[in-house]
Every structure is written in structure tokens, then in C-alpha cells.
Specification:
Strand content: 5-15%
Number of strands: 12
Number of helices: 10
Distance between the termini: 29 Å
CATH architecture of the largest domain: 3-Layer(aba) Sandwich
Strand order of the largest sheet: 8-7-6-9-10-11-12
Number of domains: 2
Helix content: 25-40%
Shape: elongated
CATH superfamily of the largest domain: NAD(P)-binding Rossmann-like Domain
Order of helices and strands: EEEHEHEHHEHEEHEHEHEHEH
Structural class: alpha/beta
Radius of gyration: 22 Å
Length: about 325
């Protein structure tokens, strides 16, 4: 295959994009936040890299590229990337699924321990100079239910199992998870209520699709144990926000650890900020010091596959949305 042309929709000043220097020397590369800047090069583009571009930019760039054969997103979630023209086209879309799984799994386990050991109370007592002895919970033998058993879910299951927790999972296609974690019971979506009722901790790591949007609402939250904790590291709208706020205020469940929200940044004065049974992360639970570089390295490896005509990694099912 001859020299390839790559358009990068993103900020040229983004430090992680310096890794583009690792691509073959004959690769023609253009980087811009403005589609108009690509000019005539768009007509020759073989691939498009969406490098955390503003909403609508990728769609505009894609429309300018009649011979593009591959689109890659540096994010794991693609709900904001799947515009109609891309979905309808034969052009494959790949993403960064799995790149951030370890750090998100660590956040999930940290959240479990935060509530089990009541770290908030310890910090409060220390700040007050109070010698406050109280009983804590052991997570050994507790049930962790994982909604969405992809890369993040499987990493979380392994860490939780190492703590002696019992793990169950729910995914759209249960048979796909049967061989990955043989000791984890896999539920189908039709068994959601049974799945939730047994959870001491619920980790949500599902992608946002038409089926998962609003999947956890009042009915589901009321069914959970009053001692249960909800941990959302997937997408905010999977949980109905108003129902969750009420559940936390009225103590239908013990608490929630949240890394994702309906609206980001979370507006000032939002109820989540004031609730003492909530642990908040500003959608940065996977922001290790090198998270952007890791995403870029995965893209570079995939680019090498593309150049050699090999199957791409992390091809998104554009109809399913993940």
C-alpha cells in the first residue's frame, strides 16, 4: 500500500498528538479543529482520527472525504460519534475500548471500599480531631453486580474476585461472556430485576445505547437493597438522574459513586454536590497521567494494521452502538 493520508480532527496543540511522529514518514498528516483547514487534502483522505474534537466537527470532516476507508475515535464511548452518515456507510469505525479499563476498574473497587470502610466518616473525624471508633464492613463474600460486561466489567470482576467478592454480570448477549470469566454468572437483560435484587454493590459499565438509556430508574432502584451502593463508570444517562437523586435523599439505597453524569460539567448547585452519601468524580476516573498517550498508542498500532491491510482492532458495531 502506498503513502496514506490521515486527517486529524483535533487541537494541533494537544501534546498527545505529538505521537503522530511515530507514523510512517511518508504518511500525509493534517491536524486541525476546523474542517475548512483540510482543503483539497480531504479529497485524498484514507483515514480520519477524531482526537477529542468538538461536537459536529467529525461529521463535517467525514462529509468532505469521499474516499475515506477508516474512522478512529480516541474515546471509548461512541454515542457522540455515530452520526447517521457514518452509520449508513460501509466505513469501519474503531474506538479506544479497553484502553482505560484498568483505571476505571480500580476506581470501582476504590468506591466499594470507600463505602464499606466509611472513609468519609474517617476523614470527617480526623478533621475534627475526634477519636471516633465504629464498625466497618468486610467486602469479602458481598455480591458485586456488573451491568455491562465488556472490558471494564471484566477488569472490575477480576479485582473484586481477588477481594473475595461474589460477582455476577448482565450483558445484552450473555453467551459472549461465558468463556471470559467462567466463575461469573451471566444474566440476560430480561432478568434485570432479579440481577439487581441480589446486589450489594452495582457497577454500571454499559455503553449508552437506545436499550440502556434510562435502564435504571425508580422501579429498579426501589428493588435494590437499602444497603446497596450504585457505582456508575459507564454513561450517565443509563441511570435516570431524578430517580437516583430521590433514591439517595430518601435512602432507598445506601449511596452512589459517580464518574459520569447527564450533563457535564455538572452544573453548580446540582443536588449531587450536597448529598453526603455520594462520591463524585468529575469524569476523570480514567485520567491517569498518560491516558491520552495510551489512547494514541492504540491508534498508532491500529494504523499499522490498516497500512498492512490487516483486520482492525476494536471495530464498533455501528448498529448496536458499541
Amino acid at each position: 500500500m502506498g503513502p496514506l493520508t490521515l486527517l486529524v480532527a483535533g487541537n494541533p496543540a494537544e501534546r498527545a498528538l505529538s505521537l503522530l511522529e511515530r507514523l510512517p514518514a511518508d504518511t500525509r498528516i493534517a491536524v486541525s479543529e476546523s474542517p475548512a483547514a483540510f482543503g483539497k487534502l480531504a479529497g485524498e483522505a484514507d483515514a480520519i482520527l477524531d482526537a477529542w474534537s468538538a461536537p459536529g466537527v467529525l461529521e463535517e470532516v467525514f462529509a468532505m472525504c469521499p474516499r475515506v476507508r477508516w474512522v478512529h475515535s480516541l474515546t471509548a464511548g461512541v454515542e457522540n460519534v455515530l452520526f447517521p452518515a457514518l452509520v449508513a456507510s460501509p466505513v469501519p469505525l474503531t474506538n479506544s475500548r479497553g484502553v482505560f479499563s484498568r483505571s476505571l476498574a480500580e476506581f470501582a473497587v476504590a468506591s466499594i471500599l470507600y463505602f464499606a470502610k466509611d472513609f468519609r466518616r474517617m476523614i470527617r473525624s480526623q478533621a475534627a480531631g475526634a477519636w471516633d471508633r465504629f464498625d466497618v464492613e468486610e467486602v469479602y463474600g458481598r455480591t458485586l453486580a456488573i451491568l455491562g460486561f465488556g472490558e471494564i466489567g471484566r477488569h472490575t470482576a477480576r479485582l473484586a474476585s481477588a477481594l473475595g467478592m461474589r460477582v455476577s454480570a448482565l450483558r445484552r448477549h450473555p453467551q459472549r461472556g461465558m468463556n471470559s470469566e467462567k466463575d461469573v454468572p451471566i444474566y440476560a437483560p430480561a432478568a434485570l430485576l432479579e440481577f439487581l435484587a441480589g446486589a450489594d454493590y452495582l457497577v454500571i459499565s454499559a455503553p449508552l445505547t437506545a436499550e440502556t438509556r434510562g435502564m435504571i430508574g425508580e422501579t429498579e432502584l426501589r428493588l435494590m437493597k437499602p444497603t446497596a451502593v450504585l457505582i456508575n463508570i459507564g454513561r450517565g444517562p443509563v441511570v435516570r438522574e431524578e430517580a437516583l437523586i430521590r433514591a439517595l435523599k430518601e435512602h432507598w439505597i445506601r449511596g452512589a459513586a459517580l464518574d459520569v453524569f447527564d450533563c457535564e460539567p455538572l452544573p453548580a448547585g446540582h443536588p449531587f454536590y450536597k448529598l453526603k452519601n455520594v462520591l463524585l468524580s468529575a469524569h476523570c476516573a480514567d485520567h491517569t497521567v498518560d491516558w491520552k498517550e495510551l489512547a494514541m498508542q492504540f491508534f498508532i498500532t491500529n494504523f499499522e494494521r490498516f497500512q498492512r491491510g490487516e483486520p482492525l482492532a476494536n471495530v464498533v458495531d455501528k448498529q448496536l452502538g458499541y
